[in-house]
Structures are given as C-alpha cells and as structure tokens.
Known about the structure:
With about 375 residues, the protein is α+β, with helices and mostly antiparallel strands. It is about 50% helix and about 15% strand.
Amino acid sequence: MRYTYKKERRDPQIQSYETGKGKRWRIKFSMTYNGERHNIERSGFISFDAAKLGKNKAINDVQKNIIKLNITVQEYFEQYCEEKIQNGSWRYTTYARQTSLFKKLFYPRWGKIKMAKVNRGDYQRWLTKMTIEKNYSKKTVQTFNSAIATVFADALLNDVIIKNPIQKIKVSGTAARDTSMTRSEFNKVFDFIKSSPLLKNQERSMALLTTLGLRHEEISGLKLKYIKDNMIGIFEVLNLHGQVTSPKTSSSERWVPMTPLVEEYLKLTINEARETYGKNGIIMSPDSFVFVNHLARHIRYSKLTEIFQLISKETGIHVWPHKMRHAFSTIAFGIEGLNPRDIANILGHSKIDMSLFYNNGTDEGKKQAMSKISNMF
C-alpha cells in the first residue's frame, strides 16, 4: 500500500503517515560517516518520540558498524586477549604467551591491517614463507595458526568480519623436537646429575626433581611447607614471569613420593637455604621457597634451563626439563605391574591417555614386545 508521508517540523528526517491502524511514523535520511554514505529508512513507529529514538539508534548502529569494520588486527587482538584474562578464561601465563606471540610474529605483517581486509591467500603465503625462513616445527606453526584462527572466529561471532579467512590453512614445518630417550641415554644423564662435581647441591636437587616427572614451574615454586613425610606437594607454582599461581590444572595439584636420593639432596638444599635466609636476616618459614639465590629470593625461572644446558653439553645428549618428564612416563609405563592410574596421578594428569602420550617408547621396549609376540606363534 502506498502512503502519503508528511515531514515533521520538529525533525524533517521523520515523517508521519496514516494507516488502517492509525497514525505511524518513519525515519528516512542519508548520512556520511568516515567518508561513506549510508541511506537509512525505518517505518512503523507508533509515536514521534519512538521514531526519534529509532533515528538515534540507527545513527549509533552505523557508527558502531563502521568502527567494527575499521578495527585493525592489533586492536581486535588486544581487546580479545584482555577479555580472556578479565573473564578468567586464561591464566596470566597464557595471556602473556599469546600477546608475546602476536606481537613478535603477527603484528609486524598484519597488525595495522583491518580485520575485514585480511585475505586467506595472502595469509597462507605469509605463513608458509615465515615457517621456512624461521625453520619452525610443524607443531609450533599449528599452535600459532590455531591461536590466530580462534581470534578471527571470535571476530566473526561479533560481526566484525563476515567470513573467517583463517580456515583450512595448510600448515607445514619441520618435525617436532624429539622427546624420546633410550634407557642408556637416560642412565647417562641420570649418572651425571647424581654424581657430577659440576653441579651444586641446589642444582642437583632441581635436576633430580625432573626425574620424578615434575614440571619446570612446579620445581621453581617449591615451598618448604609442601615437603612432608617423603612426599612433595604441588599446590603452588612459580611461572616464568616470577608470579606464584595455582598449578596448571586441578589434577596437577597432587602429592608426589620422593626417591631416597631426591630426599637426601633436598634435605641438603633446605639446610643451605636456611643458612642463606639467616645471612639475609630472615627466618625460613613453611611458606619460604626452597630454591633461592644468595639474596634469599626465589631463583630465576631460567635457572633450571641453564642447568640442563650444562647437562646437555657435558653428556652430549640434548635434554631439557620437559624431556625428562617424557622419560619418566616412558620408563614408568615400561615397568611391569605398575598401575597406569598411579603414573598419571604422579604426573598430574586427569586422563591416563595424556600420560600415555608422554610415553615415547624405546627400541629396547620394541624388541621386548616383539620377543613376547614371537613366543605366541
């Protein structure tokens, strides 16, 4: 039905018209915002005031949409990361790792580009080129690409983009670092940790704790109150930013039995730490850190990494703290009669499958398995 529209003197962008159900109002006007022209028309308002509110909302919507369309990759990524830390989805370590990753790798090429202007083909070519130039492992690139794709998916949900360009991206890269160790390699590393004069008591204690499957941050953040009855409690950790936080997951909170050798050197380390605290005018309390520097402050997060750099150099075996965690799992699962659930509990895994993932297997294990299989024929 065609209506006759009459402009309102109060606002010529609002017109009234008669319908079978009574008088109605509409808004109709054009506006230019950030160099773009927008034609706006809405009808069916039951009063002039309602039409006025509708007009203001339409103008705000245009402005918001333009702002969304003009938001750069860096601006959106920073908003996204900030929201994750504020709503509790991320721990601070995750927040710091992701923001550092974006700043280092993604912003130089894409930071100033509008989210809506990111092209899938350009992104694919850039990712492949960067992977080759920096010799990244495939696993590293998968992690990086997944993080970016997640942010673009969030932008899609918020109507910042109409299509996610980071989809079905082909990821390449070198093989991941080999986390497997033969039993002979482990024995060589263990013997060095146990007896080398190059390691001080504190360094030896820290290295020995990795043979129990403890994580880097669990060792760095060990406090006196969590050493009880030949057990080590994991209820606080020291992250790479020097912050004391809760463990990685709820299942990571656990008590881990000590071997006699670990207990022996941990006692020596505690006595040395108590002396260090005393020299600095501090009484070592249950809440004190076990591993401290000469100023009685917790050791740097990188200290354990430096210890294993020395071990790698002296043994000729490339080893690092997390590789020892894999070695623990491999050896534990290779011992007949052990309950897989107990191994997972020691490692702090809620699912046995995760502990099995850490189990790399060995050549010796394959030979033993084949020997047992051959006896079946």
